[in-house]
Amino acid sequence: MDKWEQMYLKAKKEYYPGDITPFIYAHNVVSAIEAENGEIFTGFCIESCSGVCNLCAERVAALNMYVNSGQTHIKRVIAFRDKAPVEGENNSLPCGACREFLMQLDIKNKDTEILVDYENKKTITLEALMPHWWGLSSQV
């Protein structure tokens, strides 16, 4: 079993959309990340009625990684709803807030592979999604 399949299966266990409270809905988007040391951490989307309290699955997975291991460098990311990413069918790319957070978490995350198409194992790097990122100038 390859690493993408391991990540997909771990994240899929977190997919069970539903209300947590009358104000919070969760588990409708899931994610798995591979840390620099090869460990896999998962996360799920948490949406609140106030909006500003929302957390995407990718950020929850990254925070889970940091809280549980102290790591900040992410090698790979997969995110999806009810099925694995398929290029052109569903958008599995991190939102702008997640892209920004992942870049700020560790500058090496610019090389993070993000799965675009599960069957074909097609990826894109975070840097390709964030050309001319403002924080790179502070790293020179």
TrEMBL record:
Domain of life of the source: Bacteria
Q: What is this protein called?
A: Cytidine deaminase
Q: Which family does it belong to?
A: Belongs to the cytidine and deoxycytidylate deaminase family.
Signal peptide region: none
Question: PROSITE patterns attached here?
Answer: CYT_DCMP_DEAMINASES_2
Write down the InterPro entries for this protein, in alphabetical order: CMP_dCMP_dom (IPR002125), Cyt/Deoxycyt_deaminase (IPR050202), Cytidine_deaminase-like (IPR016193)
CDD domains in the cross-refs: cytidine_deaminase
What region holds the CMP/dCMP-type deaminase domain? 1-137
PANTHER family, alphabetized: CYTIDINE DEAMINASE
